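Workshop exercise sheet. Pairs work together: one partner reads the sequence aloud, the other fills in the structure field after running the prediction. Swap roles for the next sheet.
Pair: D.N. / O.F.
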Amino acid sequence: MAPGAAALFGAYWSATEGAHVIYESRLELARLLYADFDPSVRHIVAQPFLLTANIAGAGRKHVPDFLLVTNTGPVVVDVKPASKVSEPKVSGTLGWTRSAVGGRGWTYEVWKEPPSVELRNMRFLAGFRRSAHFDDRLLCELRAAGLDNLSLGEAGRRISGWPVPAVRAALLHLVWSRYFDVDMSHDLSPSHLLVPGGYR
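Structure field:
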């Protein structure tokens, strides 16, 4: 099922927040994954505030989906399926919201469906996001092992003295935490290269 195709209310445990963040659709959950994967995002707030406006003599109200506090400033996010964005009522709300947010000098983003393979990889990596599940000694050993530009499979074979599943999981945690970067446009596999992450 495509993200956004059906409502799915719940709470996602965010590594960024160290706490749960609510969402109201599959597409909102997808945006949470992307925000949690981005080290430049320092805080994630769901339904952060109520905006009001007077448009052509009529009162309007809107609650954005997320506020992301980033290294470069606040980003207000509305999450909408691409099929809905051009509908007059939706586009009108997004338009005046963009003006209101931009008037504060903040960034406004309308987020739609991401590439399906990239999202699939993001969902998989999110399973390795909780740092408390990993032995710090193993993580330190992996960081010091000179694994840059090796494949995931080869990197796992370079480390001895630890159970193989623990090494693989720790490597994937380092990908999630952006110590390593990988090509997210193809399904993750042992042949994926580990390149130096941009947030070391």
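Discussion prompt: The CA atoms of residues 3 and 158 lie 38 Å apart. What would you look at next?
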